Amino acid sequence: MLAVQNLSVNYRGIEALSAVTLTLQAGEWVGLIGPNGAGKSTLVKAILGLMPYQGKILLNGTSLKRQRRQVAYVPQRSQIDWDYPITAWNVVMMAQTRSLGWGRSPDIKTKKLVSAALDRVEMLSLKHRPIGQLSGGQQQRIFLARALAQQPNLFLLDEPFSGIDKKTEAMMLSIFADLSQQGKTLLVCSHEWGEALNRYHRLLLLNRRVLANDTPQAVMTMENIQQAYGENIQAALHHQNVIPFVC
Ligand code: ADP
Ligand code: MG
C-alpha cells in the first residue's frame, strides 16, 4: 500500500535518514521504534510531504502528492502549540477544511462526520473546550478524532501513547484494532522498549537506517537493542522506565 524506497533526508548537511526502504500493507499495524533522534518523526514528516527528501514514496503505486487526503497524521504532543486558541470541535473540523475550501461553512454531512469522530473518542461533550484546557489524554483523543474524521487509508501517529492516561491508551488501542480490521494501515512511532511492543503486527527498528524489520519477537533481541541504543542502552531503558523484554 505504502512503499518508501531509498529515502534520505538531510538537515543542513546532517543525514537524519539514510537509504530507508520499507513497505506497509493494507490492514497492517506497524510500530516504528528507535531511540530519541533516530529519525522517526522525520520519516513521518517526509511521508506527509512536510520536508524535502531524496528517494521515492508511493501510495498504491503512485506518487503521494495527489493523495494527501489518504494519509492522516497525529503529531507528537511536544510539537503542538497548546496555547493556540482553538476549540476541540475546530481541531477536528480542520481535517475537513481542505476539501470544503477555506471560508465555506461546513454542511450537515461534514458536521455529522466530525460529531461521530468526537463521539468515538468520547469527547463530544467537551467539544467547545479550548484545546489547551484539556488533559494530555483528552488532547490526544481530539487529534485522533481529527484523523478519523478525515477517513484516510493510512494513519501516521507520532508517539501517541506519550503523556496519556490508561483510559485513553485502552481506547486508542481498541480504535487501532478496529481500523486495522477495516483494512486501514497504521504506522505508530514509539520509543518504548518492552512488552507493549507485542501489540504490533510488525516492528521497524530505526536509527537513521532501518536496523530491523520483522515480527516483534524477532526484532526485540539484545543484539538489536544494542545496535539501536549503543552504549547508552542502560540509560535509555532507565529513562524510558520500561523493563526490557528480550526474547
Ligand atoms: P525521533 O523522532 O526519532 O526522535 P527526529 O526525526 O525528530 O527523531 O530527529 C532525527 C534527527 O534529525 C535528530 O538528530 C534531530 O536532532 C535532527 N532534526 C530533527 N528536526 C530537525 C530540524 N528541524 N533541524 C535540524 N535538525 C533536525
Ligand atoms: Mg520524534
Automatic annotation (TrEMBL):
Entry coiled-coil feature ranges: none
Sorted UniProt keywords: ATP-binding, Nucleotide-binding, Transport
SUPFAM superfamilies linked to this entry: P-loop containing nucleoside triphosphate hydrolases
Signal peptide: none
Molecular function terms, GO-annotated: ATP binding; ATP hydrolysis activity
Domain ABC transporter, chain residue ranges per copy: 2-233
The keyword Transport is assigned to this record: yes
Pfam families with a match to the protein in the record: ABC_tran
Family as reported in the entry's similarity comment: Belongs to the ABC transporter superfamily.
UniProt cross-references to PANTHER family, sorted A to Z: IRON TRANSPORT SYSTEM ATP-BINDING PROTEIN HI_0361-RELATED, METAL TRANSPORT SYSTEM ATP-BINDING PROTEIN TM_0124-RELATED
Protein name: Manganese/iron transport system ATP-binding protein
Organism name: Phormidesmis priestleyi Ana
